[in-house]
Amino acid sequence: MPRARDLGIEIGALPTGPTNSVLDVAGVGLGHATVHRDDPLVARTGVSCLVLAEDAYLRPVPAGGAVLNGAGECTGFLTATEWAAAETPVYLTSTLQLGRVYDAACEIALDAHPEVATEVVIPVVGECDDSWLNDCRRMHVTTLDVRTAHAAALASRGGATPPGEGAVGAGTGMSCLGFKGGIGTASRTTDDGHTVAVLLLTNFGVREQLTVAGVPIGRMLPPAPAEPPTPAGSCIGLVVTDAPVDGASCARLARRIGLGLGRAGSVAHHGSGEIFLGFGTGLRLDRDQRPDGVPLTGRGLDPLFPAVVEAAEEAVLNSMLTAATTVGRDGNMSESLHSPEVLALLRAGR
To answer: What pLDDT digit, counting tens, does each position of 331-349 carry?
Structure first.
């Protein structure tokens, strides 16, 4: 399925990285394990893994977080914001699978680092609710799925093509702005040569508020054949940059993800959990969280802020355009944004 730029939809003014994805940040990888079956139970779910740096446990990366609306969960969020550091990959999954993914993430960390036995590790695992399409009363995700996503993330680092998006991994059962949502990513490069990339798990909003490159597409479309009875809930947003930023600056970058979601149509409904984390790979920390360089702060962050907003807005669209129409539990359906009607409205609006 095409991404936004494949269809001539350009968001913002900054150039993208080579793959227009999180893979444009050196050392970062993204992998998925998709669980899609109908027998014996309907499963539209999975797990995605973002590797920030293979040696992050020994040399943590600066981290910071922000919350737009807190009706959701992300393990490790408090520790990352308190210590301003992250030492594990970030895992994404569906709400009721979070515990299973957390357990598997601990096992992966224990396998890789025997010293965890005395120092403890708190994996970062974020969730969104995929119960519109997925039979969430059954535990579909296995330890093998988590290990598969992690191995795929390690293998993807330095890749020359964009990673899977849309209805893959954790995005398999997600819905967004009245259409099929899921995994979306995009990147930007700044004038001073830094790369800023955003990864989203989109599962928020209602159809009438969908906005594409400033065009109020949602108000121009007829009502959906079927939508969740309440606004789809939540978006986990991750931003990672190779700029030398500290934890406080990572939190400021993370907060800007919400501006990108707002441009696409988010209003952060009551039951929605917009939880954001930012990470920097340009500085690294020792086990006592001491940086190995001088961070970029203050007005030096200004070039990074629009990069986050543009990449987040485009990542929303990529998550929807690359996702095929999906039928799931009880015949519930989320239709793809990539349709002749939507494309015609976009051409007319531009």
So the answer is: 999 999 998 888 888 777 6
Contact in structure between 69 and 267 (CB atoms under 8 Å)? no
Is the pTM above the cut of 0.70?
Answer: yes
**What is the assigned CATH class of domain 5-349?**
alpha beta
- In tens, the pLDDT along 5-40 reads 999 999 999 999 999 999 999 999 999 999 999 988
Nearest-5° Cα angle at 152, 1 to 141: 85
